[in-house]
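From the pipeline queue, job 12 of 40. The input is one protein chain; the requested action is below.

Action: predict structure.
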Amino acid sequence: MANLRFDGAVVAITGAAQGMGREYALLLARLGARVVVNDIKGAAQTVSMIEELGAEAIEDTSDIADPAQTDALVARAQDEWGRIDAVINNAAIYGETLPDPDTTAKILGVHLTGTLNLIRSAMPVFRERQYGRILNIGSGSMFGLPGTGIYAAGKGGVYGFTKGLAKDLSMDTGRDIKVNLIMPAAFQPGMLSVTDPVLQQAIDEVFTPASIAPLAALLVHPSCPSNGEAIQVGGGRHARVVLATTEGWQAPDGELTPDAILENWQHVVANRDPREPVGSMSDLLVRRGLPDYSVMELYQWTRTGKDPRS
């Protein structure tokens, strides 16, 4: 199998001054990409490391929470190299579960608003070229990690947006634009220290930022095999993330009361027969023995008076 290369391609990466963002930039540069290295605090060292590899990079200090600055980031890539092929929304900041309003706005501004801004800025170029790759960085914190509430909220928003955007893109069959999300697990050197030597060795040698980069590179390559997927990655393992609804409890028609729900609560929360897509209208209909129309199909039917599947 031939090596996947990025010769001539231009990739913009946010939050690439260090950690996983830097590793994405370095691997893509080794594979021939030209990289816009974005970090609001500056990323001169990452640019120097790329140039030492004999590759091309430019430093960008745009604040991605400002849509005018993400527009400028995309324009700069085009001015410098005449194109932009992919964006990786990696920038991150952290905060406690319920921070003050200013901190809340700042965290959501980086994770959710910043992701939306860069995609919005790049999309006109992608549509004109009929090609583009978008990689969003999620987090398993969205499933509930103590002390990370606002961070988890931002990442949960990115997850939902990725799924929604992918559906929109899948309906545009004339263009090859794809968006995916990864949930990485990796640690900077010295971040964790445990007394179990085997576990510590795995943390130090296996769960590294560099171990995340190959998947990131694949998902922004022309050979990207998916659109709208969420992939967990860490320690060399790559696995699809699935949200699902269970069988639950179906109340008899005409007998739905709070008391009845309480009496059947063990069935509501039992982990039986999980199915995708999570929380969908189609799932609720199918479990009642009805056709699996989506909410959007039902809206379309209502608007046009015509069965969308007929």
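Job complete. The two ends are 44 Å apart (CA to CA).
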